[in-house]
Amino acid sequence: MSNPASHTHNAHATLDDAQRQRCEVWTRVMGYHRPVSSFNIGKQGEHAERRFFSERACAAPVAAAA
Fold first, then answer.
1. Predicted structure pTM score
2. pLDDT above 80: residue 49
3. 3-class SS of residue 10
């Protein structure tokens, strides 16, 4: 087993296009996971338009209505 502490990481590493690997994004749909790349063009557009929220930002107290 390798020791993660013994590895050195270069934060500014650059790769040639030939060295890069495509990152596949998966999402949960109707109780199971699917790769976004398998979505049709309309569903891919909907996925790109999704907005994410932070619970901390939404947890602000709401003023009582008078």
1. 0.46
2. yes
3. coil
